[in-house]
Design a protein that fits this description.
By secondary structure, the protein is of the alpha+beta class. The chain has helices at 8-11, 38-50, 65-74, 95-103, 121-134, 158-163; strands spanning 30-33, 58-61, 85-88, 91-94.
């Protein structure tokens, strides 16, 4: 039986007052992204360079062992998608929902990007898909790999699971 929480893009509108569910601080979260895409790598590197000081976002590729393990839990094949996925507070979000949630973790005036949440979802998703469909043409020269970055996850620990609101049993050491 899958104990996965609903994907936030399917449940966010059900919150009282239409507000975002409260998560515990900015310190924890996990971003799954296309680590083979230079545009995506550049974007993630930019995000890590502009996040709040109290944020310690962790990252992993869609085809990584961490993504496979999480995919089993959520009943998803992350490697078969071309989305970004963000896990925090036990919730899974993707595409434009993940993007605006990640924007709340940014420092200074960059945080205002999270106002994209106010744009109707169909418009946000269309914009996200347009960029996603053209990301290989938008790729920046270089786009160094991120597997050696200090935030890259090689394995899923029970402690990180707990901090991200996931069952600690998902950790590799369990």
């Amino acid at each position: 039986m899958n104990s996965a929480p609903p994907i936030t893009s399917e449940s966010i509108g059900n919150e009282p007052g239409g507000r975002e569910p409260v998560s515990k601080g900015f310190g924890d979260g996990l971003l799954l992204f296309d680590a083979d895409c230079p545009f995506c790598r550049h974007s993630v590197r930019w995000l890590l360079g502009h996040e709040r000081r109290d944020s310690q976002l962790r990252i992993a590729g869609l085809k990584s062992p961490v993504s496979r393990r999480l995919g089993e839990h959520f009943g998803l094949d992350f490697a078969g998608t071309d989305s970004i996925w963000f896990i925090a507070g036990g919730e899974l979000s993707r595409n434009s929902d993940a993007a605006w949630r990640l924007a709340t973790r940014l420092e200074g005036s960059w945080r205002h990007i999270s106002a994209l949440r106010k744009v109707p979802r169909p418009l946000r998703e269309s914009g996200y898909r347009f960029v996603g469909d053209h990301r290989h043409r938008l790729a920046f020269a270089g786009g160094e790999r991120l597997e050696d970055h200090e935030r890259w996850l090689e394995s899923l620990t029970s402690e990180l699971c707990r901090r991200c609101g996931l069952p600690p049993e998902l950790g590799d050491e369990s």
